[in-house]
Write a structure and sequence with these properties.
Helix content: under 10%
Strand order of the largest sheet: 1-2-58-57-56
Low-confidence stretches: 1-21, 46-53, 56-68, 279-296, 512-528
Distance between the termini: 27 Å
Strand content: over 45%
Number of strands: 58
Mean pLDDT: 83
Shape: elongated
Largest sheet: 5 strands, antiparallel
Amino acid sequence: LFFVEWAPLSVRGRWPWTFAMAMAQLRARLCGCRRGQSALDWCPGGEGELLRCVHARLEGKEAWERRQERRLVAVGCAADTVATADEGGEVRANGSVLRDVGVPIGALCAAEVSGDPWIAFADAHGVVELWCRTGRADWKRAWKDQGDASQCATCLATWQIESGHVAIASGCVDGRVRIHVVQEDGNVERCALEAPKGWVRAVDGKGARIACGGDQSVVVWKMEEEGKEQAGRVARAAEQAAPPPRLKFGSVTFRIRKEAVLHGHQDWVTSVRWLSSKHEDGKYSGDRINGSKEDAGPCLVTTSMDRSILIWKPDQRGGGLWMNVEAMGEAGESRGVGFFTAIPSEDGRTICANGYTGAIHIWKRAPSGKGQERWTPVPGITGHFDGVVDMCWGRTGECPWILTVSADQTARIFARLASGEFKEVARPQVHGHNLQCVACVKREGCPLVYVSGAEEKVLRVFGETKAFRGTIRNLCHANVIDDGGIDSAALGASVPALGLSNKAVFQGEEMTSEISAEGYPDGPDFATLFQPTVLEHPPLEEQLQQNTLWPELQKLYGHGNDLFCLAASHRGDILASACRAQSQMTAAIWLWDTKQWKAIGELKSHNLTVTQLAFSPDDKYLLSVSRDRSFSVFVRKDGDATTRYELLDKVKGHSRIIWTGSWGPNSHMFATGSRDQSVKVWRLLEGGRGVAESPSCILPSFEHAVTALAWAPLEDRNLLAVGLENGDIELWDIQTISETWSSQKVWGASEAEAHCAAVKRLCWEATEGKLLLASCSLDHAVSIFEV
């Protein structure tokens, strides 16, 4: 199961220094799955049983239409083809446009028929189309049904039945499942099946069986050749009163009878998939329309909004009895609302499911003793499922990690494990508002804390826990030394039953709930399980949600509008913050003393929102850039009792909004990037007299707005990382010889490794003699490069 990409990037320039060229490698692409059905599918990715999991946040242009920024809503895989549909109604198959008429796509699926890919999709007007490709020929439309809006399909399934014909099942909003069979001669047979009340939200077919899910139940139908069925007298009488639907293939007629109605879920059924196992002859169970009793048919996997995944199996003795033989799902006090899709692998030994929190859950068949096997959860793929808006590097002992915040209302920590893979190791904050900014604060002799701001007027301070340090020690094999103050830190955090803030839990305290699991009226699954845990293995999604929280230490009040940006001094004594603003009063920058967590001053210079703040490496200067097209530089003034910053200079440096600014490693020059598609390098005048009137260097104009900048922490080299609004990332060498400045592009991310939407932040970190460059973007992804 592949998701994290490892691939060298192209080298597009040369360094003027002793080494020949710059090389950057993409070490990790961390991203969650979108919330919704049809967002997950399997496709062959190599020899044998090697599979690749593809979801609707694909890398490259397929993930995000750069020109119109249209997000994908569905994905389907078959043979060597990946089909996608975006929110604008465009359907693509390996880059080829099959349809683009501006009508939203409601459902999409793909299947392999005789080694060739077939793709079916339905739009909001009720139109259903089936496309196929034979060999290396071009795609062609095999069939189209005009339909109408009252029969709009919410789900689709395509498969090959035994006779070689292709069947399409569409679950519709009128509570029916419509079956169309495209025969080899081009003729189409059709019938309609009555499903449970309400919309049909899931449908799937395999061989002789068809299944669909509605509100809380699942219906299974079976196709049988007329004249060979062995129905009882009561069944025959019932069929005479209500004749079952029939399909005719050539001279043979098949009837479709309702085999079972499955009740087990307590909420909407969101997906149904057949889980098959191979026979010795290479065929799958359930593929034969007139199979023997031993061929009792495949198992059925169903998911629901009740946070459960059930596996159903027909009774080998016949009689139409189906049993729930396995149950999986999220345990504990999960904040999710269930699963959207569960997809079994081709060999039937792995199940992947996407949930409410953007995670891809994975279960595998594993021995459980006494010659039996059971479904066991394994660490899956986790990441943000909405735009990642800010991030910063932190360090526990000798182990660096990246802290990210997103519009999905979570803060997540990713670290490199001992195996070399980057994984999410903690989720310290799950908030009720979209997070906007974050900054790590590390004072000498004190535990690390971070401060986050969201779409609210309050800054929140969270502290590192002993459980987190133990997790880093176990998973990263890092030397986690006591760097002061950790003895007084909390073991972890929990969320009270009726609380909103993370409450600290200290060593020796027992986790108690005001209402016990036995006495909770809605059942034990709703009892609190927020228990701090030192992880020995990569965490599961349930552990990340409940066992890795950090306690909230402080709330900082003062801003009048929603928070927008944060920055912490390198020595950790000063925090600067700014909020959304339409006037000079609300655009003021607030300074906070991190020892007492009190406001120590306001810096008034801008008239509109300050978009980014940055302290110089020596903390002597503070740079602010704003929507009012100007930047300001403040100089530090240390007093006997307090530390304050005073305005040194203010310059209108660009013709459009300035989105980003970054200091050079020597603290005497900085760069600014703007919507006017330019990057300008400025220097401070000698003696601290202000900023030079004109920029010392202007990089060649870019094709898109500049949204992120970051200078590499190199003392003898000026290496600037540039992030653009279209997702591209570039490295530039800024050279100074005497008074002559020049710039040269030395590297650019290829299309496959670049982001697909605006880059929001770039951050450097030096570790083990290497440089790591992290980037986050509105395409939901966090990328980590090694330079």
